[in-house]
Design brief:
heterodimer, A: alpha/beta, Rossmann fold, 3 domains, 6-stranded mixed beta sheet, 19 helices, 24 strands, B: mainly alpha, 2 strands
Chain lengths: 517, 319
């Protein structure tokens, strides 16, 4: 086959069969110098497998061919991939957190002078490499003391020092703040200008559109298409990923809002947020938009009794309540669905029934003895009610998909007869199909008269779902925007919301509010 | 990704089943090798030996399931042993009745569990360190109050209890099996049992689900100390004296029995029945090894290898 001069990598007919599963079949992909190439698809589409073939972690089935710089070659192990200039940055930066930046740079091959490590050289070369990507960090600093964003920069610097020409980013922004994302993107653009080829994997559509030039879509291990990013819109791309036409996934039924379910007045927690007030009514979705670190999660943690607050008042169904612990907020019908399901939400190695019942055991026990029949029947009921896909109520939740894990937590709170659901970034890390399911679940909850608060940093999601949006910045509420204003033809558009979230007041809007409208 | 429907149940059953088979094989082999092994006298002896370790191992299992560890168990056993024997002997100003001595000794030593719980939960000290510290403190206390002397002169009736068979089975063995049965019920039927698994699996998720982490943490260490106090009284009955060095090193055996029985030191795994079988397997190795004349140092090597092997097999099976 003719190869083009600026092709860095060409994958042809790549298939990969695992016992019982065909993870990839006849996939191809070409990455050129000076290109950011997106790789998208739902979970299980084969993105990771393809990357593992390219980085030498897996071997492709016979028949697949890999060209690097136009030259046909085999990549039998990760060392060979490295030698051919392929490097990868993973979301949970794989380095040694307790060692210094410099040691991480030279991990496993510290330079020596005589019997001792040549620290001067470690320092000098680390600093030089980091300077090249515009980062100024003391090489002696312990890696874990850096922000995740900086750790990622170190990982990139390390890969570049190893002369990588093709750099793979696998969900690189999952743990970054918005500012850090901006910095990362600036760096990626610079690498592109320097003639590197970038493979960029992400679930976040807005990032694909922001940074990528070309995008390859995989679905169920099959190659779907490669398109110029400028030639498609988000809905088209998502349709390609899920294989069916999606109208508007955010369009869910909104009943007419009823009485206020939760009112928060003048809530403050020193160092986290100040004077936060909001109301969410039954049958209503209240969006909380802001940059990471704006204090949205902290507010919700206080509302659920997980943290203490210094001032303010919380009312449920119009009555002031004292929420001293998660236990008391649960008793008042508040459900908190944390962003980090694995660390704060689920008992991963326990089964579905346990995770559904965990918050309501007191309700189904007498004198500390659990009614096992009720425990079982409740588990079955919620598995059916919200259609949790699991082979049994005794399946361990770690074996479920992200969307189903999220549903298990929703089931837990339904079992507690919760009335107010606080969702913190409910769709982070779940694929498009599962997102749609979660939004359907919102619809279901609203129909039952629940009130929902959705914290999200993803603007289309907030705008698409919410009846009203609260915008927070640096611990303060910047605006309370009703749907009429941000839905089509409203006075609030995306740009204005982003400006507010960045702490820039929109004068016209502010004055209008103070007139009491 | 999707597996056999009742995977979780099948797995915990199979861990116990596997242990049961291993135990049965050991019994058959040892029985073939020496007639003495399966004699009524030896079986009674085996259960008497296992009972004390077995009770401690159950306490340890609660702690391990909650994601913690208790290195103070051996010292607690020793303290309860010398306290109960001091109370019922004529060493102190007045001699207490047997029940009073036992109750006061058990109550006093159970407090050590509360202290462990407070240091671990409120002081946020890692359980390994907190209970290691307590182990040394309690050991020192024992030496201080006994002057490192054996406590003798405890009543005959109490000593006889240890050899007393009930329905042909040693009383100490009954106590152990009774505690095991109650513990199984507690794990299966009570909210406390669920809470132990919840904090062992994910403390933050448990807290946000309204579970009282403080009480549950106190609870597991108190249960463990309580069972160790009971074991200490059992040991005193068996030895016939209050022995200041009694219980030294028992924590190792207790952890080993729990781990052989399927408990994982990362929490939220394990079962009481597994620990009971694990204790029996370890005791059978020692008892049978002595009977057929395996060098006792070699026995220790075998037991050590058994522990590592059991965990390796379990890890492999779970993949």
């Amino acid at each position: 086959m003719q190869t083009n001069g600026n092709e860095l990598v060409r994958l042809e007919n790549i298939s990969k069969t695992f016992p019982g599963v065909k993870a990839l079949s006849n996939v191809h992909m070409t990455v050129r110098a000076g290109e950011v190439h997106g790789l998208v698809g739902e979970n299980g589409a084969g993105k990771s497998t393809l990357i593992k073939v390219l980085t030498g972690a897996h071997q492709a089935d016979p028949g697949g061919v890999i060209y690097i710089n136009g030259e046909k070659c085999e990549i039998a192990n990760p060392a060979q991939a490295k030698a051919r200039g392929i490097g990868a940055v993973y979301q949970d930066v794989m380095m040694a957190p307790h060692l210094s930046v410099g040691e991480n740079f030279f991990l496993g091959k510290l330079p020596r002078r005589g019997a001792f490590v040549d620290w001067a050289r470690v320092k000098r070369e680390t600093k030089e490499s980091l300077h090249q990507i515009g980062v100024d960090i003391d090489p002696a600093k312990q890696l874990s003391k850096l922000t995740v964003g900086m750790q990622e920069m170190v990982a990139i610097g390390k890969i570049l020092r190893e002369k990588a020409r093709v750099i793979i980013f696998d969900e690189p922004t999952a743990l970054l703040t918005n500012e850090e994302v901006g910095e990362l993107f600036r760096l990626i653009r610079r690498l592109r200008e320097d003639g590197c080829g970038i493979i960029y994997i992400s679930h976040r559509m807005e990032e694909i559109f922001r940074i990528c030039d070309t995008v390859t879509v995989l679905k169920d291990g099959q190659y779907i298409d490669t398109v110029e990013v400028g030639a498609v819109d988000e809905n088209q791309l998502i349709s390609m990923m899920v294989g069916r036409k999606l109208e508007d996934m955010y369009s869910i039924g909104h009943p007419r809002p009823g009485e206020p379910a939760l009112e928060v007045r003048g809530l403050s927690r020193r160092g986290a947020f100040e004077d936060v007030s909001f109301t969410v009514r039954k049958g209503e979705i209240l969006g909380f938009y802001g940059l990471m670190g704006a204090g949205r999660t902290e507010v919700m943690r206080c509302v659920t009794g997980a943290d203490r607050f210094d001032a303010g008042e919380i009312l449920i169904d119009g009555k002031p309540v004292r929420l001293a612990s998660p236990k008391s907020s649960i008793a008042h019908g508040i459900a908190f669905l944390t962003e980090d399901r694995k660390r704060q939400g689920l008992c991963m190695n326990q089964h579905v029934s346990f995770n559904i019942n965990i918050a309501s055991y007191p309700a189904i026990s007498r004198r500390g003895f659990i009614n096992l029949r009720k425990e079982r029947s409740r588990a079955h009921r919620y598995v059916e009610d919200i259609r949790i896909k699991t082979p049994s109520i005794y399946q361990r939740v770690k074996n479920l998909s992200g969307g189903n894990q999220q549903k298990v937590i929703v089931g837990r709170w339904l079992a507690c007869e919760s009335k107010v659901f606080l969702f913190d970034e409910p769709t982070v890390g779940v694929d498009v199909g599962a997102k749609v399911e979660i939004y359907r679940l919102f619809e279901h909850l609203l129909e039952q008269g629940a009130a929902i608060v959705v914290i999200s940093s993803y603007l289309p999601e907030v705008m698409g779902l919410s009846d009203r949006v609260m915008v927070m910045s640096e611990g303060r509420i910047m605006a309370d925007v009703p749907r009429a204003e941000f839905s089509r033809d409203g006075r609030m558009d995306e740009e204005k919301l982003v400006r507010l979230a960045s702490g820039l007041k929109d004068d016209g809007y502010e004055s209008r509010r103070s007139e009491g409208l | 990704m999707e597996r056999n429907p009742s995977e979780k149940r099948a797995r915990s059953l199979s861990t116990s089943l596997m242990l049961l088979i291993i135990l049965a094989v050991m019994f058959v082999l040892l029985g073939l090798r020496t007639e003495k092994f399966l004699s009524i006298g030896n079986i009674q002896n085996l259960f008497r030996q296992t009972a004390i370790y077995g009770v401690i191992a159950i306490g340890m299992t609660f702690v391990i399931m909650s994601g913690g560890i208790d290195l103070s168990v051996g010292a607690v056993v020793g303290l309860s042993g010398v306290l109960s024997s001091m109370f019922m002997s004529d060493q102190l100003a007045f001699k207490w009745s047997i029940p009073a001595s036992i109750i006061v000794a058990v109550a006093a030593t159970t407090l050590i569990g509360l202290i462990n719980g407070v240091i671990i939960f409120d002081g946020k000290v890692p359980p390994f360190i907190a209970t290691l510290g307590l182990q040394i403190v309690v050991r020192g206390t024992i030496m201080l109050i006994t002057n490192a002397q054996m406590v003798s002169g405890i009543s005959r009736a109490f000593r006889d209890f240890s050899t007393l068979p009930i329905l042909g089975f040693p009383a100490l063995g009954w106590i152990w099996l009774g505690i095991a049965a109650l513990s199984m019920l507690a794990i299966k039927y009570t909210t406390f049992g669920r809470n132990v698994f919840a904090i062992g699996s994910n403390t933050e998720a448990a807290r946000l689900s309204g579970i009282n982490i403080r009480l549950t943490t106190y609870g597991v260490y108190i249960v463990c100390s309580f069972l160790c106090s009971v074991a200490g009284v059992m040991m005193t009955a068996r030895l016939g004296n209050g022995v200041p060095t009694g219980g030294i090193g028992y924590e190792t055996d207790a952890i080993a029995a729990a781990v052989v029985g399927g408990a994982s030191l990362s929490g939220a795994e394990g079962s009481i029945i597994g620990t009971v079988l694990g204790s029996l397997i370890m005791a059978t190795l020692r008892n049978g090894g002595n009977l057929i004349g395996i060098n006792s140092h070699l026995q220790e090597i075998l037991i050590g290898l058994l522990i590592v092997l059991a965990v390796l097999l379990d890890k492999r099976r779970r993949k």
